Amino acid sequence: MTPANRRTLAAIESELGRLIRYDDESIVHDAWIRQRYEQGFAASYAPARSETVRTAWHEAGHAVAALSVGARFSSASIRAGGSTSGRVHSIQGGGELSFVIDAAGQVAERLRNWTLPESDQELRTWLASWRADGGDARRFRAGLRDRFGDDEAAAWRFTVQTLTPLRLQIRQLARALLVHPGYLPYEVAAAVAGLQPPLSCW
Fold first, then answer.
1. Angle 72-172-74 from CA coordinates, rounded to 5°
2. Residue 167: is it exposed, middle or buried by C-beta count within 10 angstroms (0-12/13-18/19+)?
3. How far apart are CA 107 and CA 58, in angstroms?
4. Which band of pLDDT confidence, cut at 50, 70 and 90, is reported for residue 141?
5. In what order do the strands lie in the sheet with 87-89?
């Protein structure tokens, strides 16, 4: 980790420690709220704040999933722009488990408030409606074939089983994205989440 990344990590950990008793919406950095409001991604500060939190959990889900399956990425960001509200940049690796990374944003959003589809019917109805998500849905369906064929529900449940034990790591990384007014490099994101990658990934 570079000295600059160490400084970023130390600043984030200090801020998270200071704000430990605050909920997610209370710790959103003003830069993210203003950016969404001033660029027309939200009608006022209140929805801008809520949208930032949702995005942080979504992107943290992608990043933690990537770390958990041994994939690498360059950085994670919750800056809104174009057709996306945030992004985990340049993900590489994951192999036959790459579909876990693709579904992880949606799974993480639902882990945040425990609103995962419960019944098979509810899940299949939701999966049928999952189309527009910055390419995540398309990549999920393409990536699950090696392991699950065309059984989207089985691949989704596998993703849920993989990520539910990592909910606290997702939350910690989401909160780091919320308090830091910039992108998080791979090494910083991994350290914040407490999921150091295998040496072969460096």
1. 20
2. middle
3. 8
4. very high
5. 87-89, 75-77, 184-185
* 3 to 6, 180, 193: CA distances (angstroms): 5, 17, 19
Select from 45, 43, 142 the least CA-distant residue to 98: 142
Tokens 């036959």 locate to 96
In angstroms, the CA 105 to CA 142 distance is 16
Indicate if the pLDDT at residue 199 is higher than 60: no
SS3 category, 165: helix
Mean pLDDT for the stretch of residues 14-27: 96
Q: Residue 185's beta-bridge partner residues?
A: 75
Q: 59-74 burial, b if ≥16 CB within 10 A, otherwise e?
A: bbbbbbbbbbbebbbe
Count of residues in the chain: 202
Q: Which amino acid is residue 47, in one-letter code?
A: P
pTM given for the model: 0.94
What confidence score (pLDDT) does residue 197 get? 58
Name the pairing type of β-strands 87-89 and 184-185.
Answer: unpaired
Residues 6+ apart with CB under 8 A from 12: 176, 179, 180, 184, 188, 192
Bridge-based pairing of strands 87-89 and 75-77 is antiparallel
Average pLDDT, the chain: 93
